[in-house]
Amino acid sequence: MADIDYFFATLSPYAYLAGDRLERIAAKHGATIAYKPLDLLALFSRTGGIALPDRHPSRLEYRAIELKRQAKKLNMPFNLKPAHWPTNMAPSAYAVIAAQSAGGGDLGGLVQSFLRGCWAEEKDIADDAVIRDCLQAAGFDPALADSGLLQGAETYARNLDEAVERGVFGVPFYLTSDGHRFWGQDRLADLDLHLSEAGA
Fold it and tell me: Which of 172, 168, 167, 169 is nearest to 185 (CA)?
């Protein structure tokens, strides 16, 4: 079992804003990460969340303010209305699943490249060429984009079921092996503190 189970969606702006902080925290504590991409819209429907188009205007307005505020605070480029959003999350999620199974590359870097591609680089992360480029840049075989599609689909669905069973209701969501839960990129410092205390 991994020290940190990381539930995320490859289109989540909040997962994008996490940058590489999870990976740096894990390295600091010698912790392992299991990457678990899932279908965020399906997660919302199963846990009482509200899809973006159905939210009250005041919530949408605050979301826009907060995303821009957090991006500025973190000094990260950010486009509130990217050219290719929303798009199909499944192909990039399948690529992450295949890469995790294959090993040998920078999995955190792959996840971040998909998120950055959407929210900062105006790329369509459902496009096969984009997926292949991201795989190659992270040190994986680009052919992983074509292999393991059945396994990817099965794991993607299983990740959603597991998330619901374990109390996940949004992304990014971090669960530690001792049962502690942290929701949101703005809780990474709390995750870091917990790992420090657990290892003391």
Answer: 172
